[in-house]
Write a structure and sequence with these properties.
Number of domains: 2
CATH class of the largest domain: Alpha Beta
Number of strands: 10
Strand content: 15-25%
CATH topology of the largest domain: Nucleotidyltransferase, domain 5
Radius of gyration: 20 Å
CATH superfamily of the largest domain: ATPase, nucleotide binding domain
Shape: globular
Structural class: alpha/beta
Distance between the termini: 25 Å
CATH architecture of the largest domain: 2-Layer Sandwich
């Protein structure tokens, strides 16, 4: 990498978080995230409301990111933005803003795949962190995606397995909703699980060939289980919330780790990096550390602020692409479906 300072403004707007970051080469100078609280009352993200909120948030968020980084927009070297995948209305706001600002400043525009950014967040320069060596296995676990990816270099990735229906984050959130926990429920399941017995209740693990995942059947089995038990005892959930959460989380983590074990065996690659919102889950972090100690894996777990959707991860990909001269032009359009490696 060159020693010349490159200042990258990054914009992330794939779902319900509006985020802007400024990077100097691979170092994050600012990473501002505006979370949309309106969706809580609906129990999930409402796409139309999300896009409206992005329109309200994007200018102040970008302004704050530049101010925190102490950078004038005229010092920027390029603008990186999330092209996809995600909610089309949300993506359009970030894409349109990035294109307009790049055109106005007459600087390069860099498109970024949101899922690749979750994996490459591990290459953000950090005083305490280390980056994985190529090749490594990346597991992206979020509200919208569950994938195991072979990463040969920064720009060569191959999806080895992915969810056939619901994503793991959706399984957490919908299970939480069945228990009466507010949205987003995933973090609350994790919190309650720490106080419960993970073997208290037994939930079936779906049988899926290869390295693919399925979580819809698990969600249905949890629903039937809770319906059956609450018929016998209307207070069953309230009286057993910690054990239910612990058992649900244990089952989900077993599914993830079994597939990861299989991927390591099939590829012979023992360097494993996770990314996405569910990477903040204390259980998966503990299981990976355990695998590092007992199986000889080398595991990489991102900082909490780089797990959920954020612009810093978009910025590091922007910097890596800048160094390779991988720019896009003003004809670029947002893509709701945008496969890794495409």
């Amino acid at each position: 990498m060159t020693d010349i300072k490159k200042y990258i403004l990054a914009i992330e707007s794939s779902c319900d978080d509006t985020s802007a970051a400024v990077l100097c080469n691979a170092k994050v100078l600012s990473n501002v995230v505006a979370t949309q609280e309106i969706h809580k009352q609906y129990g999930g993200v409402v796409p139309e409301l999300a896009s409206r909120a992005h329109q309200q948030n994007i200018v102040p968020v970008v302004h704050q990111a530049l101010a925190k980084a102490n950078i004038d927009k005229k010092e920027l070297s390029a603008i990186a933005f999330t092209r996809g995948p995600g909610l089309m209305g949300s993506l359009l706001v970030g894409t349109s803003f990035a294109k307009s600002l790049a055109l106005g400043l007459d600087i390069p525009l860099i498109e970024v795949n949101h899922m690749e950014a979750h994996i490459l967040a591990h290459f953000i320069a950090d005083e305490n962190g280390t980056s994985p060596s190529f090749p490594f296995l990346g597991m992206t676990i979020s509200g919208g995606h569950t994938q195991i990816v072979k990463v040969s270099n920064h720009f060569t990735m191959e999806v080895l397995g992915e969810t056939l229906d619901d994503a793991v984050g959706e399984a957490f959130d919908k299970s939480a909703k069945l228990m009466g926990l507010p949205y987003p429920g995933g973090p609350l399941v994790d919190k309650n699980a720490r106080l419960g017995n993970p073997l208290a209740f037994d939930f079936p693990k779906p049988k899926v060939d290869g390295l693919n995942f399925s979580f819809s059947g698990l969600k249905t089995s949890i629903l039937y289980f809770l319906q059956k038990e609450t018929q016998k005892n209307p207070n069953f959930v309230a009286e057993n919330i910690n054990d239910i959460c612990a058992s649900v989380q244990h089952t989900i983590l077993e599914i993830l780790m079994e597939k990861l074990h299989m991927a390591v065996e099939q590829t012979g690659i023992k360097e494993v990096a996770i990314g996405g919102g569910v990477a903040a889950n204390s259980g998966i972090r503990a299981r990976l550390k355990e695998a590092e100690e007992t199986l000889g894996w080398k595991t990489y777990i991102p900082k909490f602020e780089y797990c959920t959707d954020n612009a810093a991860m978009i910025g590091i990909v922007g910097y890596l692409k800048f160094e390779k001269g991988q720019f896009t032009d003003q004809r670029v359009a947002a893509k709701a479906r945008y496969a890794i490696g495409s």
